[in-house]
């Protein structure tokens, strides 16, 4: 009988712990996973692009909204990357804060 009570208390505690995490941030575990997947795919797009793969471009994603920050060689490359990222499943918007790298 003690084991049943202990197991019940542990289950209630565990469920309240997991539901509390979602309510603190307002995001579920699935949303975190979706954003991580979007960020990974967006980084893959950047690495595959010949004009951007060696540049430092930071990608962040929150609720399907992607933000790019860093430097790019030219506007043409920026537009191409933004267009490809918009095609990723789950992406709602892409905001580019990329700056064109000054040629030396």
What CATH calls the topology of the domain at 29-100 is Alpha-Beta Plaits
Provide mean pLDDT, rounded: 81
Overall shape: it is: rod-shaped
Largest sheet, strands/sense/barrel: 3 strands, mixed
Structural class per helix/strand content? alpha+beta
CATH architecture of the domain at 29-100: 2-Layer Sandwich
Q: Under the CATH scheme, which class of the domain at 29-100? A: Alpha Beta
Radius of gyration, whole Å:
20 Å
Can you count the beta strands? 3
Q: In percent terms, what proportion of residues is strand? A: 15-25%
Give a description of the structure.
The protein has 104 residues and is of the alpha+beta class. It has a domain at 29-100: Alpha-Beta Plaits (2-Layer Sandwich), CATH 3.30.70. The chain contains 3 helices and 3 strands. The chain has helices at 2-25, 29-48, 75-86, and strands spanning 57-62, 65-72, 93-100. The chain has a 3-stranded mixed beta sheet with strand order 1-2-3. β1 and β2 (65-72) form a beta hairpin. The longest helix has 24 residues, at 2-25. It is rod-shaped, with a radius of gyration of 20 Å. The model has no long low-confidence stretch (mean pLDDT 81).
Short recap of the structure:
The chain has helices spanning 2-25, 29-48, 75-86, and strands at residues 57-62, 65-72, 93-100. It has 104 residues and is of the alpha+beta class.
Features:
104 residues; alpha+beta; Alpha-Beta Plaits; 3-stranded mixed beta sheet; 54% helix
């Amino acid at each position: 009988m003690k084991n049943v009570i202990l197991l019940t208390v542990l289950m209630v505690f565990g469920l309240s712990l997991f539901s509390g995490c979602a309510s603190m941030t307002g995001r579920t575990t699935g949303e975190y996973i979706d954003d991580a997947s979007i960020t990974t795919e967006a980084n893959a797009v950047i690495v595959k692009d010949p004009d951007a793969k060696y540049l430092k471009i930071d990608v962040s994603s929150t609720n399907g909204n992607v933000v790019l920050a860093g430097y790019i060689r030219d506007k043409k490359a920026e537009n191409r990357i933004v267009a490809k990222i918009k095609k990723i499943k789950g992406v709602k918007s892409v905001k580019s804060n990329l700056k064109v790298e000054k040629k030396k």
